[in-house]
Amino acid sequence: MVKWGAALVAACIAGAAQAQPITLERFGSFHVGGRQVELSDRPVREYLPTVGSAPLRIDPNGVHMVGQMYARFMVPAPQRGTAPLMLWHGAYLTGVTWETTPDGRPGWDEFFLRRGWATYVTDAVERGRSGAAMVPDIYAPPLHLPAQNPWERFRIGTGAGSYATRQVLPGNQFPTAPEHYEAFMRQVVARYLGTDSDVIAAYIALLERVGPSVVIAHSQGGAFAWQVAQRRPDLFRALVLIEPAGTGAVAEAAKLKDVPQLLVYGDYVDQDPRWSVIRRNARAFAAAIQAAGGTVEDVDLPSRGIPGNSHMLMMDRNSDQVAALVQDWLAAKGLWR
Amino acid sequence: MVKWGAALVAACIAGAAQAQPITLERFGSFHVGGRQVELSDRPVREYLPTVGSAPLRIDPNGVHMVGQMYARFMVPAPQRGTAPLMLWHGAYLTGVTWETTPDGRPGWDEFFLRRGWATYVTDAVERGRSGAAMVPDIYAPPLHLPAQNPWERFRIGTGAGSYATRQVLPGNQFPTAPEHYEAFMRQVVARYLGTDSDVIAAYIALLERVGPSVVIAHSQGGAFAWQVAQRRPDLFRALVLIEPAGTGAVAEAAKLKDVPQLLVYGDYVDQDPRWSVIRRNARAFAAAIQAAGGTVEDVDLPSRGIPGNSHMLMMDRNSDQVAALVQDWLAAKGLWR
Hints:
homodimer, alpha/beta, Rossmann fold, eight-stranded mixed beta sheet, 10 helices, disordered N terminus
């Protein structure tokens, strides 16, 4: 009997590590926003698509749909979040940021879904399933990142030149095994410049369609979230800024006074010449919001006893620990029951 | 009592139209495949990303990851399919093809998931979340479709010039209300030429990771599926070709003799100068497979009493009816229990 009991306990422990089934009330995807641009006098292209096909003539002249945005949603049953939860990614990335980690663990999308939040994962305008526009006719040529760029810039390695030697910041939580870093690089996409007004318009269209939401935004997505919230604070129940890479307009900080905000940065910020400037700007912006009567809770993870986080917090080995900190804050704000 | 009974019946009918909750054993996403390309001597670009950020210097020289492919999967509980079910989209599109219809109904992904299939939806290499490579350094400049192109080419309108007048083929099943056609155009993305070997390698990597599968492939995806199956027939439990836009190599048709195949085209094919050629080539390829001892069931939907289908069968108003025909064929082949 004792032996059987021990086996049962062992099975339960193994079972806890294994993900449990999840019931969805509904799920799906859609595109929102966008505008029409008409092109003329462009050359026609002709080609044979493949073996067994027939020649194809593509005339690019006419109306192009530009600036739309893709969103995928999953609504769990039962729901415990009191508002939809949006996950907005950063530059050179797509919604995949939230779906999985480079070492194959579930991402924040699944973390929050399993806690009863209806989650919405988007691809920012011009990236991923949102689709980009013709270059150079509508958008300027995009930029692409080679492998050393995130390694040296996202506080994974020890800065410029560290990719060549694969030198990692001490105690860094990012999965840096060669196969994991390569998995991360597979998620990286091009980024177009000059598209900010399209991106902001599409995020507003998304929130208008879904309704007032909790928005968790990362890096470039954080800067967009602040700028969107200044235009439509009524559409934000709360705003969680994960390492925002920019701010809103300081002169209009008061527009954010009624949106509860959480600001989170990871480790190695002060010693990084670029991230130290970015966080200083973000804290100055937060101070302006607070001076106007708003609430921005500023979390420095190492000071909370959570060291080693790179810029990609939601992919780091302790990603669930950081997500739990966000979850606890949302619950404390009364947004989860 | 009678009144109350009638209300109950009405409620039940309304309830039947409403989707029921669904339980997933697991879900997630990953990237597969890809290769590394090294660039050198390219110019560095510098810009200020946004308000409150710090200047950013992007040096494109170094190793780029190219040719990887994104896949998202959902595994229902209980499972009734005896193999994973893959959904491969066509040219100028992404996996969104299978997720939703332009008029907002559930797509084939949900149709098959609700019947107990573990579904895998991919974005072909260079499209959507798979990410494209630098132009013109690695890939040649892509092509983009203006609004009239699918209308006139996908057997929605009455051919060349029909978009201007919005003339629709009689009895056409595609959702052509202005807001629905615009929703479809939001899903359209660029397509790069010269990437076939990357695409084929990534599909093989996908099947090697997931295991032998049922593959449902549309248009360009159908041509790829035939070409992938000729290289690795061991990885296909069955192959459903929805309006394939090309074929495999006729000389190697015998390689497909052990893969059960279903070939489906919609309406208006014979009267279309391009699709009539494409179907003739597909049927000649099917005949070569059959001559080698293989099985290709050739379905002309109008002959089966299902008229009005455009090239985008999975988005047409009767998309569930066509999906049911595929489901019945898979069940008859013993692939569903």
